[in-house]
Design brief:
Elements (H helix, E strand, L loop, with lengths): L4 E3 L5 H12 L5 E3 L11 H4 L9 E4 L2 E4 L1 H11 L10 H35 L6 H22 L12 H13 L3 H8 L2 H11 L2 H5 L6
Parallel strand pairs: 1-2
Antiparallel strand pairs: 1-3, 3-4
Helix pairs in contact: 1-3, 1-6, 4-5, 4-6, 5-7
Length: 213
């Protein structure tokens, strides 16, 4: 079986989710960096892998897959090892909702606004826009409250063992917790904070730390 290839920047939360899944399944892979800051994601070679110009895309055994949730499910089905999707229907639904919240609501406010202004803009030599940060916080709180509710007293979003939802949420939280506002909000949810601490200690998280520059 050929080694899978991930196309995207290592610092992308979505790329990291895919890497986490492969690490959890103990699958060797190649990471082909795509410099989104230089516009490589909208060049012809990447558009051939994802016509929407998003990252990551994923290739394995002649198949190209894009959209992170689809890639994660493919990885869980295609490779042996631990199962990353709960067989318990209600827990699986909670995990699926957590993934949906990231894609539909949380990424835009947590990464697109809060983290971008507090972390990315200064890295690019700019000045954070406090108004954009302030405007994002109500939605950040709402998403965080829902993640806490969906955790539902379990150690992982999928129940008793780590699953795809944990891998989808953790890279976003890793950046959010790097902001003062994010630490304050997440710190108000002890169970969620404990979950992130457990997640951060996993080998998969340690092996996929983002590298900038």
């Amino acid at each position: 079986m050929t080694k899978p290839v991930i196309y995207g920047p290592n610092f992308s939360t979505y790329v990291r989710s895919v890497r986490l899944a492969l690490e959890e399944k103990a699958v060797e892979y190649d990471l082909h960096e795509v410099n989104i800051l230089a516009g490589e994601h909208i060049q012809a070679d990447h558009l051939a892998r994802n016509p929407f110009g998003k990252v990551p895309s994923f290739s394995h055994d002649g198949l190209t897959v894009y959209e992170t949730s689809a890639i994660l499910r493919y990885i869980d089905r295609a490779f042996p090892g631990v199962t990353l999707q709960s067989s318990e229907i209600k827990q699986a639904a909670r995990g699926d909702m957590a993934i949906g919240i990231i894609d539909s609501f949380a990424y835009s406010c947590m990464i697109g606004k809060l983290v971008w202004q507090r972390m990315v803009t200064p890295m690019l030599g700019g000045t954070p826009d406090d108004a954009i940060v302030a405007e994002s916080l109500d939605r950040v709180r709402l998403c965080t409250r829902e993640f806490d509710r969906l955790l539902a007293g379990h150690p992982w979003f999928g129940g008793a063992s780590v699953g795809l939802a944990d891998l989808h949420v953790a890279p976003v939280f890793a950046y959010v917790i790097g902001t003062e506002e994010g630490r304050e909000i997440i710190g108000g949810f002890p169970a969620l904070s404990d979950w992130f601490e457990r997640m951060s200690a996993r080998d998969s998280m340690q092996k996929t730390q983002p590298v900038f520059g």
